[in-house]
What we know:
This protein is an all-alpha fold. It is built from 1 helix and no strands.
Amino acid sequence: MHLRIPPANKQIVMFSWPIPATAANLIETSQLRRKYYSAQVYAQTQVHSLFLSLSYSGGTTARHDQ
């Protein structure tokens, strides 16, 4: 199966119809966006925390007091 990619100098025309945005839709979208970005920040924090832990431990996560 081959996908045909239009040349860069051609514009893709998309048809759009107005979609009614109710207050409930807007609130839900806002909540989903907030959850998504919160999850991203949490994941980044965990990665940075792991990196710092590995940096300070010299690359090992084994506890030395056992």
